[in-house]
Write a structure and sequence with these properties.
heterodimer, A: about 270 residues, alpha+beta, Alpha-Beta Plaits, 3 domains, two-stranded antiparallel ribbon, about 10% strand, B: about 900 residues, alpha/beta, N-terminal domain of TfIIb, Rossmann fold, Dimethylsulfoxide Reductase, domain 2, 6-stranded mixed sheet, disordered N terminus
């Protein structure tokens, strides 16, 4: 099937779906499956930007051979990634983020950037969360994505907020931080909803860009507020400290005194 | 953009648009279909199958199947929410490999221990079990048979099994897996308060100013409660959470203070806090004088291991030897006020009387806690080598400060397995109560020491019904003649029917299979050969020729593999049921669907089994070697048949007729209006028209009057009721016990009344022992215990240099026999990995994801190293969950136990890890 044919096929399928729901019910999984595969054709760690990657990749399969978890595959004609190029589908087999990154140094062409030696620096994609479906956003105690995240606490953090619906429980909302997320896809694989509520896509499909004329006032470091922020345990625990508003106050206010110095005072 | 990539881009965007369009259309159709389908659904109330939190659920059935489940918005515990296990609660019934036929090992058409499993009829299976039971029972008497049940068995199931074995077979060899879970909590409740179960309730989470977690990963083990604790932290900016733990876990995410300590040293930390209370004059002397006494007990009590190494693996012998003689280190020597004994071996002479305790003075108590200075405790307890001693000291001081904070500040202490599964678990429970009693902050709104529970009905069934080897219903004890008499009266048994000797606790029963003292074991709702420690022994013992093992379960488990007969059991909503959660809330459900194939409820199995015994087989004279109890002949149980005849029994009556289908019980007819048209498979199978669950609940209820009071059966089934917290007096539930205005058993003007009835008269003495053996009564008072710091038997050495701790994760329940059958849950955590500090891994030539051997004196298994795991281990400590059938973590763990509670310590085994 040529690209044009497929395009027409997809459009026709969509039209049919619009007309008869039952037909759509049969065909749409296929349609969605293909869309899914395309967006999920994630590249190995260290892959150069797609254009450069495609220009350099020899389709030799060395990286696929080196992958100990059989995560990486070479695309076949049916796979919707350019034939012969390495990719992985996170929902099936995510990148396990090997400490020694074995897939990168074997790349003969440099399509995978050899300067990547720290796997946490890899940027394979970025997850998006379907907040309408995600169980954690609904207040359930799930957060599976958070707990399985190999860069937990950085790539995925929890935004803990009051649940207005029950007025008694907290919601633990997972939040993706592009600064740390490698796009390994372990979260997408582990998500327990029928279709994953968290999906890793290539950055280009996920990330927006601010106009260069504008500098955000909150700054790039804007972070979710830690509910413990501003807590000074030492201070709140020691009322003596509070009274030390001026030098000497703490001493003078101490009950009693040293034996013999203040006659009659209880030590 | 190259042409190629542009084409890719266009294709992708078209496909995406298309999918969106098609998807929209489908979801409209699906929505219409769904609402049409939902019209036929029948919703009814249910309870989550899993942990001790007790979330309410709404369950929808259609065409004989559970089609949907949702958190019950009216349930006060969870208000419509669930954790990820509860979300899949309906799916656990429909795993692909549900057991639907009884299976028996056969050769040549007969039972054969060496045969393969073959499907048989229920009659074949039960007849063979009864024949084997009778063979063993006749030869060795009631002490050679055991029923091992569960904190997940329904109230009705626990009651039936308990009555059958204690009143019918006259054996006390019944013990639940709650022995592995809450036994330490129970002993502490008994010794401190004279009555089991928490004084506080979940409402306190929203009322406390400070919440202290003692070795309790509540975020994963009690997910919905944690969301309440967390929400309170959000709502009240001045509230604080403190996580006292041996490793960083998910609770630390929002804790204001995290204290990482070395195993067992919480015993010292708690004494340090008590000492600070005394030194800073923070003790509420008025409360203590009016409502408490001080107490202590023996120190050299061993570690609940076998006193012999006859059955030990060669490598185990050195650990086992510590049961008899244990060398204390310099810290233990100081902490136990015998500094000159450091490095010396001490005979564990009080192993047989570990539960003894006596009255001491406040001055003696103060002398006991005196060695626990900040300097001493900090040096001993600091658990993270990378933390400075000064920083750790500061944290300990802050922890003490929070406890000592002024009277208006409310404080809750919470704990669960980290404290209970501990060689000194009872002591730690008691030390936590001591802090709250010293402050006079217990059992009131927002103030209290609250023992959380692990299983859905460890409280409601195992503890309240008393399916332990030493218990009778509602806190009565096997060893107490008055309690036996009361039980015999309610159960209409001839006097002296009940066996006066405490039965075998769970670990003892398994050891019994190994040493030949127990030959018959029947397990219900429990996968013991995966969940008890040191399983290599029991896996082998189950296959000993003379032993007969019956496993009733819903799914194939490792336990089934070593059984002789496997019985397919009905699950949760396939039967009428009632659970009791950690806050004394009893909640119930109707049978909503039928079990698949020939799977049947455990209660029915027990009742059918009871039909296979006549009174003359069990109520005649029975051998009981070693029995020496006042009022009983030596070495045997007397025949009670003559007395039974006088009471109208006939010796050819079956146990079913004598104990269960009695004329009184048969008055509860099925169908009953509360059934609202639902089925009752037990009634259907029995075919004699009485409502088993209701009749037996109403028979059980009188046991509970006077402190544990339950409401009538029908009240729990009221559409508006979402469980009730006992005691229920005049139709009102009780949130807090022992304090005036909250507890209906406390009279006006008393302020407090610790009205529990057990162990309320004890001798007196000092820290070193009893000086006056006359039991001194202490009506209405609680005991504040002094308990010293003490170590554990298997210390690290050059060979076994890592501390192995085990536990649960949020995604899986216990041994995974249910949750691993839900593909979505399996996907979230497919295998148990070894959480390890990266430096420890590196030092052993290991990296994340490497396969490693984990070896202890008891066995070795392969695990995947996880240096990025959910728990952040300090150097020297490793952690593993026990849910994974493919990773038998309990082949590694040590079966040392708290000598008071006989609850094993799963948290401290010495291990080594090396590349596989």
């Amino acid at each position: 099937m040529s690209a044009i044919d497929r395009r027409q096929f997809l459009i026709r399928t969509a039209q049919m779906a619009g007309v008869a729901a039952c037909v759509a019910a049969v065909w749409s999984p296929l349609v969605r499956g293909q869309a899914h595969a395309a967006a999920h054709a994630l590249r190995p760690p260290g892959a150069l930007p797609e254009e450069d990657f495609m220009a350099l990749c020899l389709k030799c399969g060395q990286c696929v051979k080196a992958c100990p978890f059989k995560t990486l595959k070479l695309a076949t004609v049916a796979d919707h990634a350019p034939t012969g190029t390495p990719y992985f589908i996170a929902r099936e087999t995510p990148c396990e983020m090997c400490v020694d990154v074995p897939c990168v140094p074997v790349c003969p062409s440099g399509a995978l950037d050899r300067s990547l030696t720290d796997i946490t620096k890899a940027r394979m994609g970025l997850p998006v969360i379907d907040r309408e479906i995600c169980l954690s956003f609904r207040g359930l105690r799930c957060e599976v994505c958070y707990r399985v995240c190999p860069v937990r606490g950085k790539a995925i953090t929890l935004n803990i907020v009051h649940n207005e619906d029950t007025n008694r429980h907290a919601r633990f909302e997972p939040v993706i931080n592009s600064e740390h997320c490698t796009g390994c896809g372990i979260c997408e694989k582990a998500c327990p909803t029928e279709e994953s509520s968290i999906r890793v896509l290539r950055h280009q499909f996920v990330q927006g860009k601010l106009g260069e004329h504008y500098s955000p006032s909150l700054g790039e470091d804007f972070k979710i507020q830690d509910i413990r922020q501003g807590t000074d345990i030492a201070k709140e625990l020691n009322p003596g400290d509070k009274r030390q508003a001026a030098p000497g106050v703490g001493y003078f206010n101490q009950p009693g005194g040293r034996e013999g110095i203040i006659p009659g005072a209880k030590p | 953009m190259t042409s190629l990539s542009r084409r890719e881009f266009i294709k992708t965007s078209i496909a995406a648009t298309t999918a969106a369009t098609a998807g929209f259309t489908v979801s409209q159709a699906a929505l219409a279909q769904a609402s049409a389908a939902e019209a036929g659904w029948k919703w009814d109330k249910g309870v989550c199958r899993f942990c001790g939190v007790g979330c309410g659920e709404q369950v929808a059935t259609f065409d004989g199947k559970i089609v949907a489940i949702k958190g019950d918005p009216d349930a006060p515990v969870n208000r419509g929410l669930n954790c990820i296990k509860g979300y899949f609660n309906g799916r656990i019934l429909y795993g692909e490999d549900r057991l639907t036929r009884p299976l028996m090992r056969m050769k040549g058409g007969k039972f054969d221990k060496d045969g393969d499993f073959v499907p048989v009829t229920w009659d074949q299976a039960l007849d063979e079990i009864a024949a084997q039971f009778k063979r063993i029972y006749k030869a060795k008497g009631p002490s050679a048979v055991a029923m091992l049940t569960s904190g997940q068995s329904l109230v009705s199931e626990g009651y039936i099994t308990n009555k059958l074995i204690k009143a019918g077979f006259r054996s006390n060899n019944i013990d639940p897996n709650a022995r592995l879970c809450m036994a330490s909590a129970v002993v502490a409740f008994y010794q401190c308060f004279g009555v089991d179960e928490p004084a506080n309730c979940y409402d306190d989470f929203e009322l406390a100013d400070t919440t202290v977690l003692w070795s309790n990963n509540m975020a994963e083990a009690h997910p919905i409660l944690w969301s309440r604790v967390t929400d309170h932290r959000l709502a009240d900016k001045n509230s604080r959470i403190i996580n006292v733990t041996t490793y960083r876990n998910m609770c630390s995410d929002i804790s204001d203070l995290e204290i990482i300590y070395k195993p067992n040293t919480e015993l010292a930390i708690l004494n340090y806090i008590a000492r600070e209370m005394v030194k800073r004059n923070a003790v509420n002397m008025d409360f203590v004088n009016k409502h408490c006494i001080f107490a202590t007990g023996p120190v050299d009590i061993g570690f609940g291991m076998r006193p012999t190494d006859k059955f030990a693996f060669p490598a185990e012998k050195d650990t086992l030897a510590k049961q008899l003689n244990y060398t204390i280190d310099k810290y233990e020597a100081i902490a136990q006020r015998r500094p000159d004994m450091a490095g010396k071996s001490i005979e564990q002479k009080d192993a047989g009387r570990a539960d003894a305790h006596w009255h001491i003075t406040f001055d003696e108590y103060k002398r006991g806690i005196e060695p626990y200075t900040l300097d001493f405790v900090a040096e001993l307890a600091k658990g993270d080598p990378s933390e400075s001693l000064d920083a750790f000291k500061k944290k300990l001081q802050q922890l003490a400060d929070y406890y000592i904070a002024d009277k208006s500040k409310k404080i809750m202490s919470l704990w669960c397995m980290g404290v209970n599964q501990h060689v000194r678990g009872v002591w730690v429970n008691q030390q936590i109560y001591a802090l709250h009693l010293l402050l006079g902050k217990h059992g009131t709104p927002g103030n209290g020491a609250f023992s959380l529970t692990g299983q859905p009905t460890a409280c409601g069934t195992a503890r309240e019904v008393g399916t332990f080897c030493h218990r009778l219903p509602s806190d009565m004890l096997v060893a107490n003649p008055a309690h036996r008499e009361k039980t015999e009266k309610i159960w209409k048994l001839p006097p002296k029917t009940l066996n006066p000797r405490v039965g075998t606790a769970l670990m003892m029963a398994l050891r019994g299979l190994e040493d030949g003292s127990v030959n018959f074991v029947w397990t219900q709702t429990v996968n013991l050969w995966q969940s008890v420690p040191n399983t290599n022994h029991w896996l082998k013992a189950a296959r000993n020729k003379e032993n007969f093992v019956v496993v009733a379960d819903a799914y194939p488990t490792l336990s089934g593999k070593v059984a002789d007969v496997i019985l397919p059991a009905a699950m949760i909503f396939e039967k009428w049921g009632m659970f009791g959660n950690a806050e004394r809330r009893m909640q119930c459900w109707r049978q909503l669907v039928n079990a698949p194939g020939q799977a049947r409820p455990d209660a029915w199995m027990m009742l059918e089994f009871a039909k296979r015994f006549t009174l003359k087989e069990v109520w005649g004279e029975l051998p009981l070697p070693g029995l020496k109890v006042e009022g009983f002949p030596d070495d045997k149980l007397p025949s009670v048949l003559e007395e039974a005849k006088k009471m109208g029994y006939n010796e050819n009556m079956t146990l079913y007729e004598a104990l269960f289908a009695t004329p009184e019980n048969k008055k509860f007819k099925w169908p009953d209006p509360i059934a609202k048209g639902t089925e009752n498979s037990i009634v259907n199978l029995l075919g004699d028209g009485w409502f088993v669950e209701k009749a037996l609940f109403e028979e059980y209820r009188p046991f509970t009057f006077g402190g544990h009071d339950l409401a009538p059966f029908d009240m729990y089934y009221d559409d508006k009721v979402r469980g009730l917290r006992w005691p229920i007096i005049d139709g009102k539930e009780t949130k807090w016990r022992f304090s005036e205005g909250n507890d209906p058993f406390v009279k006006a003007g008393e302020g407090y009344n610790f009205h529990g009835k057990l162990l309320k008269a004890i001798p007196s003495g000092d820290l070193d022992g009893v000086k006056d053996t006359t039991p001194k009564p202490l009506p209405g008072k609680a005991k504040i215990f002094f308990r010293p710091y003490a170590g554990y038997p298997e210390k690290l050495d050059k060979n076994y240099d890592l501390q192995l701790c085990t536990g649960r994760i949020l995604e899986h329940w216990h041994t995974g026999s249910m949750t691993r059958r839900v593909p979505e849950l399996h996907r979230t955590a497919p295998t148990a990995t070894l959480d390890m500090n990266p430096a420890d891994a590196q030092a052993r030539g290991l990296k994340h994801q490497d396969l490693a051997w984990v070896e202890t004196r008891r066995g070795k298994i392969k695990m995947i190293v996880n240096t990025r795991g959910r728990n952040k281990m300090p150097p020297g400590t490793i952690w593993a969950a026990f849910f994974d059938e493919g990773v038998q973590v309990n082949q590694l763990t040590l079966d040392a136990a708290d000598p008071l509670s006989l609850e094993p310590d799963y948290k401290k085994a010495a291990a080594k890890v090396y590349k596989a």
